[in-house]
Amino acid sequence: MSQRIRRTLLTLCLAVAALAGFGGQAQAHGFTSTVYADVVEHDGRPRTTLELEYDLLVVSAADAEDDDALFREGTAAFENGDDRSRARVLDDHAEAVIGYVTRHFSLASGGRPCTAHRAGDVTMTRREGVPYAVLVLDWACADGDGPVLRSTLFPDREQYVKDTKTIVTYAVDGLSGSAALDAAHPSFSLDQAWYERFAEFFRLGAEHLLTGVDHILFLLALIVGSRTPREVVLAATSFTLAHSVTFLLAALGLVDVPADVVEPVIAASIAVVAGWHLWRLARRADRQVPLGRGHFRLDRAGWTRLAVVFCFGLVHGLGFAGALGIDAAWSWTLLWSLAVFNLGIEAVQLALIGLTFPALAVLRRRAPRAGRLVTGLVAAGVAVMGLIWCVQRITET
Predict the structure, then answer these.
(1) Beta strand 175-181 pairing with 115-118
(2) Residue 53 to residue 324: CA distance in whole angstroms
(3) Phi and psi torsions of 112, nearest 5°
(4) Which alpha helices (H) appear in the chain, and where do they start and end?
(5) Contact present, 197 and 372 (Cβ < 8 Å)
(6) If you average pLDDT over residues 120-128, what whole number do you get?
């Protein structure tokens, strides 16, 4: 085995080990969190509906406000799985909760801060299988230009999660749109230019795929299981078309599948696609290059795999849609935001394919046995992670 092949083999194995190690450490919300904020006009004033991860809100507010009782009661309510008791804990400690939230989430108008007032009791919902608290705030603002919204909720310095995103949708004073905020871009004006909003969503889409270990492992399973450049391109295209369809259906309000169903199926899809390659390796079918007819030149196995990838892509699309909190009626603003978010995903996906598949192709051609060993180890690791996640997500629901 040449030195170049050894280096390629080592690089691929280290990359897979890093992915598997990172994935094994991931919890329900992983290392990141997403806050959802909807801003509308109510009785002539801005009203924000905030959705925040329940367990993060409890620990962050308890720590910041030095409220030990909130931590004890909130943790117990989180563990017993009762949404009513969770909401009741937050209501009982509303001063600490509101104090924490309004220090990290604010509106300003005319250069002066708006004043927040709680509107109604806390309620609960779920996002991607994770309990979220719903908090409604009314804001009294001075006259001025379009309000400036700022969010630094769950910052890195708290050391609970990293890279918190805040997805904002708004319809205030004749202005409507959406934005994505993070530590590098914590604020925006509601009358910002369209290209600024869409640049944020492109970046958010790219980051979502890079930080979504399950989606990356699914893509890796597609890459190692493809026998030719044609197959990997068609598989990636099928996956893209499928989750684009789901995006559109979600934006139209025609599909709404609970995260309790979506997340375990995404995990199972990773195991199935990786296991498929292991099965072909066991039958030595991976050595057969597709010689089908037509433009795509796929055999029966290739077409079957393409159909399976498309079906799983529909489910992954629901996961992507969940990341943007799509549960509202269709709008042009939302649709364009989704399209740009999707472009960000595709840019990273194509980059990963371009970096990974050529290295595998060279390894398979120059050292077929080593190529089968590497793809088998990768597929086995991905399949194990998919099965572990599937069991975890089923038992957590």
Answers:
(1) unpaired
(2) 14
(3) -120, 145
(4) 3-25, 54-65, 68-80, 83-92, 94-104, 194-211, 213-224, 229-251, 259-282, 300-323, 332-366, 368-396
(5) no
(6) 89
**Of the candidates 100, 200, 104, which has an alpha carbon nearest to the alpha carbon of residue 152?**
104
Mean of the pLDDT values across residues 88-108?
A: 95
> Residue 361 corresponds to which tokens in the numbers above?
């192709």
Q: What is the pTM of this model?
A: 0.56
- Cβ neighbour number for residue 189 with a 10 Å cutoff: 15
Q: Are strands 105-109 and 112-113 parallel, antiparallel or unpaired?
A: antiparallel
* Phi, psi of 348, rounded to the nearest 5 degrees: -70, -40
Residue 246 pLDDT grade (very low, low, confident, very high; cuts 50, 70, 90): confident
Looking up tokens 């997340």, which residue turns up? 263
* 38 three-class SS: strand
Phi, psi values for residue 188, rounded to 5°: -160, 160
Alpha-carbon distance 372 to 171, whole Å? 55
Going by C-alpha positions, the residue among 266, 380, 238, 388 that lies closest to residue 323 is 266
Structure tokens at 20: 């598997």
Average per-residue pLDDT in the chain? 80
The amino acid that residue 297 corresponds to is: R
Q: Tokens 């958010």, residue?
A: 204
242 or 124, greater pLDDT: 124
pLDDT of residue 47: 94
The continuous run of DSSP H or E covering 189 comes out as strand 187-189
C-alpha span between 280 and 278 (Å, rounded): 5
